[in-house]
Amino acid sequence: MPLNFLLMFVLLFLLVLSAFLLVRSWGWKKAMEDIPGNLGWPIVGESFSFISEFGSPAGICSFMINRQKRFGKVFKTSVLGRLMVFMTGSNAAKILLTGKDGMVSLNLFYTGQQVLGRSSLLQTNGEAHKRLRRLIGEPLSMDGLRKYFQFINNLAIETLDEWSGRTIFVLDEASTFTLKVIGNMIMSLEPKGEEQEKFRDNFKIISSCFSSLPLNIPGTAFYHGMKARKRMFEMLDSIIEKRRSGEICRQDFLDSLIIKHNKTGGGSDEEKLTDEQLKDNILTLLIAGHDTTTAALTWLIKFLGENPHVLEQLRIEHQQIQEHRKGENLSWADVNNLPYTAKVLSETLRRATILPWYSRKAAQDFEIGGYKIKKGWSVNLDVVSIHHDATVFPEPNKFDPSRFEAPLRPFSFLGFGSGPRMCPGINLAKLEISVFIHHLVCKYRWRCLEKEDDSVQPTLVRMPKNKYPIRVEAL
Ligand code: HEM
């Protein structure tokens, strides 16, 4: 009897929920009438087309560009049960990314929400978000990163030594390098050994489930991802325990949060984190920082390979440093004075647009570009079109770092985002990439083993589909 009652209750709940979602979706569809676009079939919307274009050589860009051609710069669609509005242009960017007065929040798919956890920086808003950013920002500032410089420098030299005389896939190698850097920075993981292997295996499973379908049943990517998340958290629990008991003390990112900000530590209550917040946000930094830096480093090496005159100019900047050092090691001051390298990185982020669209959820009704947006809608900024606007970047498909010599119009370049959600890992990413590139261009040359191809992998972060295979020789 109680079982029947429970079953009836669950059915009734599902019925009410479906009715609510249906009524809300009808209401939203009506409110969206003025916005051009096609919502596709009932329930499935344009999901099939989205999934198939996501897997095409141009990735999500082809979905966005095809619709822009038909409907203009602002269009609506419905994907995986979500009604979405896409828009582009620096005005839209300013409004959405600045998101004044809590107008919008970050919009993660269900899988992303479950993987990162509810106290992740990506799922917090307002004051809680500001506070978390403050805590995380400190160890990621230039001052905070200084102590990892030597580790990154040695690792770059060792990694490149192993490339010499071999054929390698840059994407795979860059992935290993950036994961070792962030593992060491966050919790002092040694670059080799059993702990590193376990960490890498779990991380890869978690990261590859991030954009999977939200089916948490045995055999699915999402199911394996959630299991790997549990194993990763057990590993973190054991490390945190050792740090707290004083058995191990390392002065890394984790220690700085445990000592200053953990519930059992000192400091004001305002500045304290629970273990859940600590673990969710360590995973958040790993996920947000790894694929992005890996992709940036890979695209950068690929663009250098395809543009010998840029490589030559970059090499001159780095060889001058080498000459001044007279055989001594690269120094912290050197990496902070690389003007041409900074332009090459910006041009890489513009040309590749690693994160092609930034997604927000309207937290209130507002108007943008003459269109009325309702609370709860998913509003998405197409960054690829902003980065390829020929009025700002003439010949937008050309790789030309000199574009960044003059100041740009605000919100026309968004490589690391802008506003309150601008990337907090910008200094770390620049440091890793600059150090790696220094040793690469000073000591090696390479040639690509396949013909030029800009196809991307079907992942949220755009990466070269062919992983950029090269043959490397010492100079
Ligand atoms: C070249 C490498 C990187 C690129 C291109 C990049 C790009 C971005 C962009 C565009 C955003 C804003 C997205 C939005 O507004 O929706 C962002 C946010 C973020 N990035 Fe990065 N990122 C990189 C490296 C890193 C690294 C190394 C870390 C961590 C150590 C990191 C951690 C984060 C986090 C936690 C956020 C969310 C910030 C928030 O919601 O307040 N990123 N990144």
Characterise this structure:
The strands form 3 sheets. A 5-stranded mixed β-sheet has the order 1-2-8-5-3, with helices on both faces. A 3-stranded antiparallel β-sheet has the order 4-10-9. Strands 6-7 form a two-stranded antiparallel ribbon. The chain starts with a helix and ends with a strand. The radius of gyration is 24 Å and the shape is globular. The protein has 475 residues and is α+β, with helices and mostly antiparallel strands. A hairpin with a 2-residue loop joins strand 6 (366-368) and strand 7 (371-373). The longest helix has 32 residues, at 275-306. The mean pLDDT is 89. The protein has helices at 2-31, 47-54, 60-71, 90-98, 110-116, 126-137, 142-145, 149-163, 170-187, 194-209, 221-245, 253-261, 275-306, 308-325, 332-335, 339-352, 383-387, 426-443, and strands at 75-79, 82-87, 104-106, 167-169, 357-362, 366-368, 371-373, 378-382, 444-448, 469-474. Helix content is 54%, strand content 9%. The chain has one domain (88-474): Orthogonal Bundle (Cytochrome p450), CATH 1.10.630.10. The protein has 18 helices and 10 strands. Protoporphyrin IX containing FE binds at residues 106, 121-122, 133, 284-285, 288-289, 292-293, 296, 349, 354-355, 358, 415-417, 421, 423-425, 428-429.
Assembly type of the chains comes to single chain
> CATH first level: which class?
Mainly Alpha
Q: What is the domain tally?
A: 1
What are the low-pLDDT stretches, counting only 5+ consecutive residues below 50?
Answer: none
Instruction: Indicate the mean pLDDT.
Output: 89
CA radius of gyration: 24 Å
Structural classification = alpha+beta
**Biggest sheet, in brief?**
5 strands, mixed
Provide the spatial order of strands within the biggest beta sheet. Answer: 1-2-8-5-3
CATH topology: Cytochrome p450
State the order of secondary-structure elements, H for helix, E for strand.
Answer: HHHEEHEHHHHEHHHHHHHHEEEEHHEE
State the shape: globular
Count of DSSP strands: 10
